[in-house]
Amino acid sequence: MVTDRPERSPALPRSAERDELALLGVLIATCTVVIFGWLYVAIIGPLHVLAPDAARIAGGDTSTPVVVRRHDHLGLVARDLERVRRGLTGKD
Fold this sequence. Notes:
This protein has 92 residues and is an all-alpha fold. It contains two helices and no strands. Helix 1 packs parallel to helix 2.
């Protein structure tokens, strides 16, 4: 005799391996958020601040000085941009 019963998928037992994989996934996601957050704060944000100054100087407006807020590589770029602005205005 053949009967037609719907099959139910058996519930997967909780295992240590499954818990470890879930923990690994959470750890990877957390590290990714921290790394990209640091990149935004340390590099992308300051570049967004410096880009309007560069565009302004490229457009010919040399009246406002470029303020150097940092003393790292991006600060060196800002300092050099200010030197370019001064060179264009003739106020060395």
